[in-house]
Amino acid sequence: EDKVVQSPLSLVVHEGDTVTLNCSYEVTNFRSLLWYKQEKKAPTFLFMLTSSGIEKKSGRLSSILDKKELFSILNITATQTGDSAIYLCAYGSGNTGKLIFGQGTTLQVKP
Amino acid sequence: DAGVIQSPRHEVTEMGQEVTLRCKPISGHNSLFWYRQTMMRGLELLIYFNNNVPIDDSGMPEDRFSAKMPNASFSTLKIQPSEPRDSAVYFCASNPTGISGNTIYFGEGSWLTVV
After folding, report:
1. Distance from C-alpha of B87 to C-alpha of A2, rounded to nearest angstrom
2. Whether A90 contacts A36, CB under 8 Å
Protein backbone atom coordinates (compact mmCIF):
# COMPACT_ATOMS: atom_id res chain seq x y z
CA GLU A 1 0.00 0.00 0.00
CA ASP A 2 1.31 3.43 -0.93
CA LYS A 3 2.17 5.53 2.07
CA VAL A 4 4.08 8.58 3.24
CA VAL A 5 5.55 8.93 6.72
CA GLN A 6 6.70 12.14 8.26
CA SER A 7 9.00 12.65 11.21
CA PRO A 8 9.12 13.96 13.77
CA LEU A 9 5.40 14.31 14.41
CA SER A 10 6.03 17.37 16.53
CA LEU A 11 8.94 19.64 17.27
CA VAL A 12 9.55 22.61 19.57
CA VAL A 13 12.47 24.93 18.88
CA HIS A 14 13.55 28.48 19.70
CA GLU A 15 13.80 31.35 17.31
CA GLY A 16 17.00 31.24 15.33
CA ASP A 17 17.30 27.46 15.38
CA THR A 18 17.53 25.41 12.19
CA VAL A 19 15.11 22.54 11.73
CA THR A 20 14.98 19.58 9.38
CA LEU A 21 11.69 17.85 8.69
CA ASN A 22 11.65 14.41 7.14
CA CYS A 23 9.33 12.69 4.72
CA SER A 24 9.76 9.12 3.52
CA TYR A 25 7.49 7.45 1.03
CA GLU A 26 6.63 4.15 -0.54
CA VAL A 27 4.66 4.49 -3.74
CA THR A 28 4.23 2.27 -6.72
CA ASN A 29 4.25 4.93 -9.39
CA PHE A 30 5.90 8.05 -8.06
CA ARG A 31 5.46 11.29 -9.95
CA SER A 32 6.21 14.11 -7.54
CA LEU A 33 6.51 15.09 -3.90
CA LEU A 34 5.04 18.27 -2.49
CA TRP A 35 5.41 20.22 0.73
CA TYR A 36 2.63 22.34 2.21
CA LYS A 37 2.45 24.63 5.24
CA GLN A 38 -0.75 24.73 7.27
CA GLU A 39 -1.34 27.43 9.83
CA LYS A 40 -4.82 27.98 11.17
CA LYS A 41 -6.66 27.37 7.95
CA ALA A 42 -5.97 25.71 4.61
CA PRO A 43 -2.65 24.17 3.59
CA THR A 44 -0.62 26.46 1.37
CA PHE A 45 1.85 25.24 -1.21
CA LEU A 46 5.60 25.43 -0.56
CA PHE A 47 7.49 23.20 -2.99
CA MET A 48 7.05 20.53 -5.61
CA LEU A 49 9.94 18.14 -6.23
CA THR A 50 10.23 15.73 -9.09
CA SER A 51 13.96 15.21 -9.59
CA SER A 52 16.55 13.85 -7.19
CA GLY A 53 19.28 16.04 -5.87
CA ILE A 54 17.92 19.38 -7.04
CA GLU A 55 17.32 21.73 -4.15
CA LYS A 56 14.31 24.00 -4.20
CA LYS A 57 14.74 27.16 -2.18
CA SER A 58 12.48 29.96 -1.04
CA GLY A 59 13.95 32.37 1.46
CA ARG A 60 14.85 30.48 4.62
CA LEU A 61 13.12 27.32 3.42
CA SER A 62 14.66 24.69 1.20
CA SER A 63 13.83 21.16 0.20
CA ILE A 64 15.45 18.29 -1.61
CA LEU A 65 14.35 14.89 -2.86
CA ASP A 66 16.22 11.59 -2.91
CA LYS A 67 14.38 9.22 -5.24
CA LYS A 68 16.82 6.39 -4.63
CA GLU A 69 16.35 6.38 -0.87
CA LEU A 70 12.71 7.50 -1.16
CA PHE A 71 12.76 10.51 1.08
CA SER A 72 12.64 14.26 1.13
CA ILE A 73 13.68 16.84 3.69
CA LEU A 74 12.45 20.34 4.37
CA ASN A 75 14.94 22.67 6.02
CA ILE A 76 14.09 25.92 7.76
CA THR A 77 16.99 28.09 8.83
CA ALA A 78 16.90 30.93 11.35
CA THR A 79 13.40 29.96 12.42
CA GLN A 80 10.88 32.62 13.40
CA THR A 81 7.67 32.38 15.42
CA GLY A 82 5.77 32.80 12.16
CA ASP A 83 7.15 29.45 11.01
CA SER A 84 5.00 27.73 13.63
CA ALA A 85 2.62 25.52 11.66
CA ILE A 86 1.91 22.01 10.51
CA TYR A 87 4.16 21.00 7.62
CA LEU A 88 2.62 18.44 5.30
CA CYS A 89 4.34 16.22 2.80
CA ALA A 90 2.34 14.71 -0.07
CA TYR A 91 3.05 12.59 -3.11
CA GLY A 92 1.41 12.38 -6.47
CA SER A 93 1.43 9.00 -8.17
CA GLY A 94 0.19 7.42 -11.32
CA ASN A 95 -1.73 9.36 -13.89
CA THR A 96 -4.30 10.95 -11.65
CA GLY A 97 -4.13 14.39 -10.12
CA LYS A 98 -4.66 13.32 -6.56
CA LEU A 99 -2.22 13.85 -3.71
CA ILE A 100 -1.80 11.60 -0.68
CA PHE A 101 -0.66 13.35 2.47
CA GLY A 102 1.46 12.30 5.41
CA GLN A 103 0.44 12.91 8.99
CA GLY A 104 2.29 16.18 9.14
CA THR A 105 4.93 17.61 11.46
CA THR A 106 3.72 20.20 13.96
CA LEU A 107 6.43 22.80 14.46
CA GLN A 108 6.33 25.28 17.31
CA VAL A 109 8.90 28.07 17.35
CA LYS A 110 9.22 29.80 20.70
CA PRO A 111 10.47 33.39 21.04
CA ASP B 1 -9.19 35.00 -8.44
CA ALA B 2 -11.41 34.19 -5.48
CA GLY B 3 -9.82 30.82 -4.79
CA VAL B 4 -11.68 27.70 -3.77
CA ILE B 5 -14.82 28.68 -1.88
CA GLN B 6 -16.40 26.43 0.70
CA SER B 7 -19.55 26.71 2.76
CA PRO B 8 -20.49 26.58 5.51
CA ARG B 9 -17.29 27.56 7.28
CA HIS B 10 -18.50 26.13 10.55
CA GLU B 11 -21.37 23.79 11.34
CA VAL B 12 -22.52 22.19 14.54
CA THR B 13 -25.23 19.58 14.14
CA GLU B 14 -26.87 16.82 16.10
CA MET B 15 -26.16 13.19 15.47
CA GLY B 16 -28.50 11.76 12.88
CA GLN B 17 -28.94 14.99 10.95
CA GLU B 18 -28.01 15.40 7.33
CA VAL B 19 -25.02 17.60 6.57
CA THR B 20 -24.29 19.12 3.18
CA LEU B 21 -20.95 20.80 2.48
CA ARG B 22 -20.51 22.89 -0.63
CA CYS B 23 -17.57 23.81 -2.79
CA LYS B 24 -16.88 26.10 -5.70
CA PRO B 25 -13.52 25.31 -7.32
CA ILE B 26 -11.27 27.85 -8.94
CA SER B 27 -12.64 28.77 -12.36
CA GLY B 28 -10.98 26.76 -15.08
CA HIS B 29 -9.74 24.02 -12.78
CA ASN B 30 -11.00 20.68 -13.97
CA SER B 31 -10.09 18.49 -11.00
CA LEU B 32 -11.75 18.69 -7.60
CA PHE B 33 -10.86 16.89 -4.40
CA TRP B 34 -12.59 16.42 -1.06
CA TYR B 35 -10.28 15.84 1.91
CA ARG B 36 -11.04 15.28 5.57
CA GLN B 37 -8.61 16.28 8.31
CA THR B 38 -8.56 15.01 11.89
CA MET B 39 -5.88 14.95 14.54
CA MET B 40 -5.80 11.17 14.52
CA ARG B 41 -5.72 10.51 10.79
CA GLY B 42 -4.34 13.68 9.27
CA LEU B 43 -5.47 14.70 5.78
CA GLU B 44 -7.34 11.91 4.02
CA LEU B 45 -8.52 12.01 0.44
CA LEU B 46 -12.20 11.12 0.29
CA ILE B 47 -13.05 11.50 -3.39
CA TYR B 48 -11.64 13.03 -6.54
CA PHE B 49 -13.44 14.32 -9.64
CA ASN B 50 -11.99 15.08 -13.05
CA ASN B 51 -14.17 17.01 -15.50
CA ASN B 52 -17.13 16.51 -13.13
CA VAL B 53 -16.77 12.72 -13.18
CA PRO B 54 -15.86 10.84 -9.98
CA ILE B 55 -12.54 9.12 -10.64
CA ASP B 56 -11.60 7.67 -7.28
CA ASP B 57 -13.98 7.39 -4.34
CA SER B 58 -12.03 4.71 -2.49
CA GLY B 59 -11.49 7.07 0.42
CA MET B 60 -15.17 7.61 1.13
CA PRO B 61 -15.54 6.02 4.56
CA GLU B 62 -18.97 4.43 4.18
CA ASP B 63 -22.34 4.68 2.53
CA ARG B 64 -23.36 7.57 4.73
CA PHE B 65 -21.03 9.74 2.65
CA SER B 66 -21.84 10.81 -0.88
CA ALA B 67 -20.45 13.45 -3.22
CA LYS B 68 -21.69 15.00 -6.42
CA MET B 69 -20.37 17.42 -8.98
CA PRO B 70 -23.27 18.44 -11.19
CA ASN B 71 -21.22 21.02 -13.10
CA ALA B 72 -17.72 22.42 -13.34
CA SER B 73 -18.31 25.11 -10.73
CA PHE B 74 -20.04 23.25 -7.92
CA SER B 75 -19.67 20.17 -5.77
CA THR B 76 -21.34 18.85 -2.64
CA LEU B 77 -20.32 16.38 0.02
CA LYS B 78 -23.23 14.96 1.97
CA ILE B 79 -23.25 12.99 5.18
CA GLN B 80 -26.53 11.29 6.06
CA PRO B 81 -26.99 10.43 8.86
CA SER B 82 -24.14 12.22 10.59
CA GLU B 83 -22.31 10.72 13.57
CA PRO B 84 -19.98 12.28 16.17
CA ARG B 85 -16.99 10.53 14.60
CA ASP B 86 -17.59 12.55 11.44
CA SER B 87 -16.44 15.66 13.29
CA ALA B 88 -13.50 17.00 11.31
CA VAL B 89 -12.41 19.73 8.96
CA TYR B 90 -13.50 19.01 5.41
CA PHE B 91 -11.37 20.63 2.73
CA CYS B 92 -12.22 21.02 -0.90
CA ALA B 93 -9.33 21.55 -3.31
CA SER B 94 -8.92 22.02 -7.03
CA ASN B 95 -6.19 21.51 -9.59
CA PRO B 96 -5.94 23.06 -13.04
CA THR B 97 -5.02 20.08 -15.13
CA GLY B 98 -5.55 16.88 -13.21
CA ILE B 99 -2.00 15.92 -13.99
CA SER B 100 -0.38 13.85 -11.30
CA GLY B 101 1.48 15.79 -8.70
CA ASN B 102 0.41 19.22 -9.81
CA THR B 103 -0.16 21.73 -7.07
CA ILE B 104 -3.65 21.62 -5.66
CA TYR B 105 -5.26 24.67 -4.10
CA PHE B 106 -7.29 24.31 -0.94
CA GLY B 107 -10.36 26.12 0.27
CA GLU B 108 -10.49 27.34 3.84
CA GLY B 109 -12.36 24.27 5.02
CA SER B 110 -15.69 23.46 6.58
CA TRP B 111 -15.31 22.80 10.31
CA LEU B 112 -17.95 20.19 11.23
CA THR B 113 -18.89 19.23 14.75
CA VAL B 114 -21.48 16.50 15.28
CA VAL B 115 -22.77 16.30 18.83
Report:
1. 26
2. yes
